[in-house]
Amino acid sequence: MTTTHQGSLGRLRPAAERFHSQLNWLDSWHSFSFSHHHDPDWMGFGPLRVINDDTIAPGQGFGMHPHQSMEIITVMVDGELTHQDSMGHREVLRAGEVQRMSAGRGVVHSEINQSASPCRLLQIWVEPQTPGGEPHYEQKPFVITQGWTCLLDPSGAADAIAIQRPVRLWRSQPQPGTSLELPLQPNRKTWLQLIDGAITLDEQPLQRGDGLGFESAPGQTIVSSSTSADLLLFELQ
Fold it and tell me: CA–CA distance from 199 to each of 46, 131, 155 (Å)?
């Protein structure tokens, strides 16, 4: 069982204490309990159930397997991944793109790196507002800037991908020394995940792979302290 840390703002998940799965083709870090890794202290955060940071070797990947009643989001960081599913989709997901698959009452899919280079992605699972329903697939490229780019929104506002839950997800790549106010409503359950680099959030330092769960408040600001800062910000209900 891992240690539960209280950061200066909330619940800290240090990168090195995540669950680690390593195969000859997959290097995966799990922020929450997943597969045969189980810890009752880390079952998720609100409706957020999975954040897996996966690096997949060339020519390898996850063969056809089923899901149901889950919103499954893939944020591509490096390389590309080929998706195929029982709805008839066959798509290549490239760096900077986001995929959202509503598993609904049931879907089968595969995710294979058919390129000649490793790929890196964050696989994210969010519980839907209502279980079941028709499965759905959407994929979209995003331009990530020093500000906040909205990737997910319940109504698909601001060209974001819609999701069947009142959840919003932003991504940002701030330059060194940049101060950036969080785009959150007050008193919202929030999760911040560092893809790369290092930042400080109201005196709480965070680095690559760290996650922090906290309640939002007016005026919260991050300061980037790395040339390669890259982060995800979840507003959860």
Answer: 24, 36, 30
Which amino acid type is present at position 182?
L
In degrees rounded to 5, what are phi and psi of residue 158?
Answer: 55, 35
- Name the nearest CA neighbour of 237 among 48, 97, 84: 48
Question: Is the pTM higher than 0.70?
Answer: yes
> What would the pLDDT profile of 131-151 be if each residue is shown by its tens digit?
999 999 999 999 999 999 999
d(CA 75, CA 123): 7
SS (HEC) of 169-225: EEEECCCCCCEEECCCCCCCEEEEEEEECEEEECCEEEECCCEEEEECCCCCEEEEC
Helix (H, G, I), strand (E, B) or coil at 136: strand
Instruction: Give per-residue burial for 203-218: e unless 16+ CB within 10 Å, then b.
Output: ebebbbbbbbbbebee
Position 7 scores a pLDDT of: 59
Helix (H) or strand (E) holding 226: none
The predicted structure's pLDDT at residue 226: 79
User: What residue ranges of the chain have pLDDT lower than 70?
Assistant: 1-8
